[in-house]
Structures are given as C-alpha cells and as structure tokens.
Amino acid sequence: MAAVAFDPADFKAAYPELGAVPDATLNAYFLRSQLFLANEDCPVQDEAKRLQLYWLLVAHIAQL
C-alpha cells in the first residue's frame, strides 16, 4: 500500500478557513496525525479516503 502525500495547497482549498496557517505548520500537523492513523499498513486501503481522513485530522489539530 502506498503512503499518501499531504499537499498544503490542496488542503487550504478544501479548508479555506485555515488558509492563514503556514504550510510548515500544516505539514507538522500532518505528521502528528499519523500518530492516530498509520499511513502505511493502514486498514483504510483506499488512498483517497485515507487522505480525506488525514485532512479531517489536520483540520481538527489546527482548530485546537
């Protein structure tokens, strides 16, 4: 299974309310989100669905 990549520009297009968060910070949140959902050997085999789950986790972390 391939790991999904995080693209801050795509994330900001989906979550414009978080557009002011620096890309480096969002990338750090993406890395942190992998503590909750493995990017490899994950039960979520569909990469598009896994990316959406990561986006939800990153948005949640950013709101905290």
Describe the structure.
The chain has 64 residues and is an all-alpha fold. 55% of the residues lie in helices and 0% in strands. It has three helices and no strands. Helix 2 (23-33) crosses helix 3. The longest helix is centred in the C-terminal third of the chain and has 17 residues, at 47-63. The protein is globular, with a radius of gyration of 11 Å. The model has no long low-confidence stretch (mean pLDDT 95).
Parts with pLDDT < 50 across at least 5 consecutive residues? none
Overall shape: globular
Average pLDDT: 95
Strand content: under 5%
- The tally of helices reads 3
What layout of secondary structure does this protein have?
Layout: H1 8-14, H2 23-33, H3 47-63
Helix pairs in contact: 2-3
Give a quick precis of the structure.
16% of the residues are buried.
Features:
single chain; 64 residues; mainly alpha; 0% strand; globular
